[in-house]
Amino acid sequence: MSQVNCLQCGALYSDREFLSSSLSSNECLDVAASTARVGELEFQIQRLQLENDTLSTSLKLSTEQKTTLEFELAQVQLDLKNSKGIIDDLRSTLSQIRTSDASQLQLDMQSLAEKLITETATRSEIEHAKIQIETELEELSARLFEEANSMVATEKKLRLEAERKYAILERQLTEVQDLATSQKDELDDLKSRLEQTADEKDKESAERIRMEKERDELEMALMDGSVSGSPRSSYRLSRSGSNRLSLSSVPSDSAYGSSYSDYEYGNNELELTFHLSDFRFEEFKEFLDTPKNAKNMYISKFIKRTITEDIEPAMRFESSNVRGWFQQRKLTNATQSGTLIIETVNSGSPVSSPVSTPCKKQSIPVASSDTCNLCLQHINTPIMYRIRYDDFDNEPKDICAFCRERLFSVCEFYTFVRLVHSGIIKGTPQRLYLEANRLRLKIFLGRIGSNVTTDGFDEIKESNALALK
Known about the structure:
alpha+beta, four-stranded mixed beta sheet
């Protein structure tokens, strides 16, 4: 229940009491005016409270600003005090400088002047060195450009020369390929002919074995004295029995139609023989069974033994100590690879075109020296030779006929074993081994200077030497 305050008497009445009271109309108007006045006063009180709060906030901010300003004032006063101390120190120092001796100042000025002179001289030297370095840099730059231009010109010349050589090599390669094609055709033809004559050679071999048996029977009969007369040269006594084979008793089916199969000494014929139980023959059969590879060929025992016993002595020339190991090695590699070219020097014959055939003889009409490049001996034979390591070797070396025979026999042996190893030359191991021994014998004869063609008149044959006895 609400209460009403009477403005006249100040008494409080409840609503019922206020309504039930017998008030006059004037009194009611006074009460309404008093109520309006109370509302206005309450509104003013609220406004004053708001203003009081605003003023309190402003006072608080002003107090904080005052505190900040007082702190800043204290710092400024401290800085001012420090500045005054510094000013006092500077004034005392200035007074000391003013009261100091003038001679000390002169000495300091003189020292500074000397330092200035020294620094000036040093600067002059540095500037002079700088000028020299710049000058040298310009000279080096000019020289560098000159060398660069020279290198470009040289490179251009070398490129043109290389292109020219490439064209020449390409043309030579075409010629070599054509030559290889023709040689391949010839080899195919030779293979076909060898296959056609294989049966005939087998028949001849059987016939020769039969003749060998008859020869052995005849020799045994001669030894027993049952048959009188001297044996023929083709029926000589075999000292080792039935396991001995000779070159004359075994037909050769190699590609070499050489005239050195039989070496005649007077009225007797030198016949090559070997024993089937010889370990060297076993090594040769191992060589035939090795895989078809160039590296395997040169590591076989048979080739190593032949190189040690026959080829190395034949290739050991007097010029080895003069020409050096490298040149000797080039000559050895040329003989092994089949690139060595032997040219005949003949001033009266036309020039033959160089062909890249191993150990191929050619005639070239050029002036030559009188000393052999290998044995270092004077060449006094009507015929002489020159060697080149390959088709690209532009420095041929003069050699004599005796050194040529040694090189040619070595090349011939290497060519034979290469053809055998590649399967081009086929035959029984006995026939191939006898052919290899014949070539080894030819290497030995070339090494000792026997059976060498020199077109001279001072050659002495065994028949003539025996006739002089």
